[in-house]
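Protein modeling request. Please complete all fields; requests missing the sequence field cannot be processed.
Requester role: graduate student
Desired output: 3D structure, token encoding
Chains: 1
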Amino acid sequence: MNNNKFDLVVFGATSFVGQIVAAYLLRTHGVGQQVKWAIAGRSATKLTRLKEQLGAAAEGLPVVVADAKDPASLVQLCEQTRVLVSTVGPYALYGEPVIKACVETGTDYCDLTGEVQWIRRMIETYEAQAKASGARIVHCCGFDSIPSDLGVWYLQQQAQKAFGVPCDSVRMRVKAAKGGLSGGTVASMVNISKEIAADPALRKELANPYSICPPEHRPDVRQPNLKAPRYDDQFDVWLAPFIMAAINTRIVHRSNALQGAAYGENFTYDEAMMTGRGLKGRVAAYGLVAGLGGFMLGSAIKPTRWALERFVLPKPGEGPTAEAQKNGFYDLRFVGHTAAGQTITTKVTGDADPGYGSTSKMLGEAAACLAFDIGATDQPGGFWTPAALFGDQLLTRLTERAGLTFEVVHTD
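Delivered output (412 residues):
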């Protein structure tokens, strides 16, 4: 039984993103104050070193030693906290024992995974047990997929206010973004390529936009999916595929399903990147597609994958500098259309590097929202999405604390 020694614990705190999350929680909540939190991982030495790096303010920060390969230690960890925040990835390699411990002990959980094939396996294996124990499991609480998921949720709330109906079609376009990749993110992407190479059937599953929706919500609606450069006449810009669309679109469709098809039974959603206007925008779009295709092909073939991992790609523990995280940003635009032809445009912005500076704040606030804003009697156990579980409570936290904005640009 959970004795609530801690409100939340960051597991994998010595990882690249785990360190950033710990630093954010320290700045926001301090130590020994209203929020009781701790850091956890498999190495007491590395955890102690992290405390030293965080400075004098972290002197009293509790440390818990637990190992993803030691199920008993994970159960003991879960029994001490209301919410477990996991930054231990790739999740497809290391994440299942943590999920298992949480659903066994009824501990709430959130993470940063973007690995849709792993999410599907966790739902199939553990959702019934999570519902029984009361554990609320919330994947994708970083840049993938909170801005997209809550962005669509916010647009639909505003559409209901303006038109009295939801939009049955929404498009998200990345207008601008600046940020870098960490070795952990790259490792997750490479692992997906490895899984596809080992199991070709996985490619078909990953192409299914409803792959993580409940079985009763599998509409026969063809979803738009940009695979090649294209000119967008509405924005007068060239478009290229957005690498995070593969996970974001799946989370948005699951959110729609968990809310009783609140966006409509025939809801469509897609994402793409704006690359600019004219010849320059076209060249940039084709360049992005060529680069992405080269990476996916190279990571799927064993010899080139080895060369990429050895000489080109950042390694686990590596990532953007603190200055680069601070100087990053993103600007996402959402355009929704109702069945009657009414249009609403909204935007979501973030004030830091999307993958790390902003992600750390989003994950920290999602964990706090789970611990303090969503009571056990408010929402039951199960596998949730950020929009379906948190809604306005998290949106408020993000705008007040985490540097995000949600705005209506215009309605028509």
